[in-house]
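Recap from last week: sequence in, structure out.
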Amino acid sequence: MSKLLASDALRGIRIAISASDSPDLARLGLAETHFRLALAEIGRCVLIAGGELFYGGHLREDGYTTFLIRELQKYSRRDSPLTICLAWQEHRELALSELAARRRSLGLIGSIVSLGPDGDEVDPTDGRQEAPEPVADPALRRRALTAMRRYMANQTHGRVLIGGKRAGFQGEYPGLMEEALVSLEHDHPVYLAGGFGGVTSDIAAALAIDGAAWLPAFADAPEPDPRWEAGRARLSAFAAAQGESATRNGLTADENRRLVASHRPSEIATLVSLGLGRLHQKP
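Predicted structure tokens:
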């Protein structure tokens, strides 16, 4: 379990990271700091093995995108190993000067891809002035998010998921649920770091990997969002059709259960590395 990936084991391999706030941290006795440490360790294990990271999010200062950028700046990779994908509404809500400044600040660490409503790469300066032009239409926002997720799946070779909101999301399904579904439908390996709860643990339960019996029950659980229920049903149907090969991630059933239940950054990164290493082992 302690064997690390060789320095070039993931050269040419692009891994998407899906991370979102978990509503379960407090009842697990964990803090946001623990969550971010795990996220940083996952990114580090991919980078030191020569892989590339894709992340879809926003550029606000308190978000995980900015956190990942700062963490990755600690390492010596200067071959643009990080790609940040911005859905239509995310780059439209930024002033053009701010977006340009964020591109420059990345330097050799990474690049920003701006996407249109249907997931095509666009020039964010086309058809607009300096001021932000927020997208208010909920249907357009949902469409753009799904398009971004499909774009990322087409550009990557696998996905790691951690956390995830069950409420307050914008898409057709909770964000991480939809990202898991899109990756699975592309026959990509999926790694579920479910020890921080949230939608990631729900995905693991729906795929019959781990029922999350270790997750303390809510005293007053809110009524589930119908979109959460619909996403869970689609995942369960996928698992029923695929059987034990649903995640296709190079880990055994026991190793996947350990990955789902762990909240230790080093163990999570080791298990992700183990699965990736088996899938991409050089002859």
